[in-house]
Amino acid sequence: MPFAPAVDGLIGVFEEEQLPYKEGSHFAVSRTVSILAALYEKARNAIEFRADHLIRRAAIERMLKRRILINGGSATIADNLVVELLWARYIDSSQVDDEKVLEVGRIIDRYLLVKREQFDGGKNAYHLTWDTMLGLASSEIEETLVPAKKRQALNNFFYQIIRPNVQIPGEEKLVNIQTYIAVERAFAQADDALIAFHLVKMIQPTWLATSADTARDELLSFLKNVELIRTNFKHPLNEGLYRYVRKQTPPFFLIRDFFLENGKKSREIIEKPEELEQKLRELATKRYQEIGAKVRRSVVRSIIYIFLTKMLFALALEGPFDVFIAKKISYLPLAINTLFPPVLLYLVAGFLTIPGQENTDRLIARINKIFYHFEELKNEANIFIAKRPVRRPMLTAIFSFLYLVTFLISFGFITWVLTQLHFNIASQIIFVFFVTLVSFFAYRIRQSAKEYEIVDRAGFLTPVVDFFFLPILRVGHILSNEIAKLNVFIFLFDFILEAPLKVIFEVIEEWIRFIRTKKEEII
Hints:
Layout: H1 5-15, H2 31-46, H3 55-70, H4 74-87, H5 98-119, H6 130-145, H7 149-162, E1 166-167, H8 172-188, H9 192-203, H10 206-209, H11 216-233, H12 237-247, H13 250-262, H14 266-270, H15 273-325, H16 331-350, H17 357-372, E2 384-385, H18 393-420, H19 425-449, H20 462-483, H21 488-522
Parallel strand pairs: 1-2
Helix pairs in contact: 1-7, 2-21, 3-4, 3-6, 4-5, 5-6, 6-9, 7-8, 8-12, 9-11, 13-15, 13-17, 15-16, 15-17, 15-19, 16-19, 18-20, 19-20
């Protein structure tokens, strides 16, 4: 059965043979040290709310930042970085040999050159940050150690389908970058560091092929391109285009799961429409049933994250206020502030209904059109057009006033209830702080649990509830973004605990290797 080039290309990626296991020198680490390091990483990741598929890249960035600060030489950094990743079980020893370590060393060399040329001595002509460069370096290192060709092929496939439907007047390069950013954020759910790396690969692939010796020739273009990408992250089109792309993602999530599960057999199944439909129904049912477990994991992670990272703020404010100003400890507000947020998170995020038969039918119909009638997608009416907002000053003023009123009503009602329960001002601030944060995290969890929903199931009263709940979500969003920058536990782990712990791990590793060597000598 002939397919459109885009569909055939995607199938072809999953038909490619995996690279055989390379013979040569592979890294091995102590199981004892690995257990300790993995436990440390679990504790460290609990204090930073991040999607599972982004944790490894963030860990590489964190380790790389510390190693560059301490070590200096790229060869030493590469060896130690790979060992740390093996300890923490972010990679498997079969994925790493001497050649891979040399590749990692070359990447680090290149970014150390950027550091010397762009950041040392107060130089920074392009208003970029060293953290941006570390994000790019960590993304490139991760892809070198654990190639993600199949997932990248899925992202590009989605982009090829979405791009013709995005009709924005202006430079085509801008539209391409904006569409790609929206696809990466909505479908791949990537962070800015990963998106920036993928864009650099497309805009300036020669940068990845250079060594430190030849990188100077590419450096100026590289810095300009990174600055262009960072500017595009803040473009006014971002939000609207992201919302449009996100609405198109449900069938592509199921396509992703289908290919990742069936691999080389994908073509054989797609060539038989009846068999494809059966497989998709089974897969959709399986994903619907996993929603409950996914939500429960997210709820637990959110509770741990919020209470570990924000409890210090609560204790620092409420405790001294009760002891030194109120002269008494208010046990009821303390109990409510402790118990109500996790209960609210469970209630808001926990009661989800899974999609039904109608949703599955529409997903399959859409996937059939993508696979078997690809060319028709270009003629669809569902397009994104950037329109200038119609200026209606009177209506804008009225709606802005109503929006302000919802803030006053929502938070005024909360304040009135808390006053009736004899909350002092500190307890009220703590309550609002936690409730807004928890509400925002609950909303994010609900949205992530609906990634396979193509049918809108909004209730009759949903607009009314949203109208009064929106102010709480808005404040929670602001608090989540701003206070994440003041995470005391991240500072504690990254700058006080991690460096000495890793030194201890290295000593234990060397001691175990020494004992093993002596034992082999006896035998």
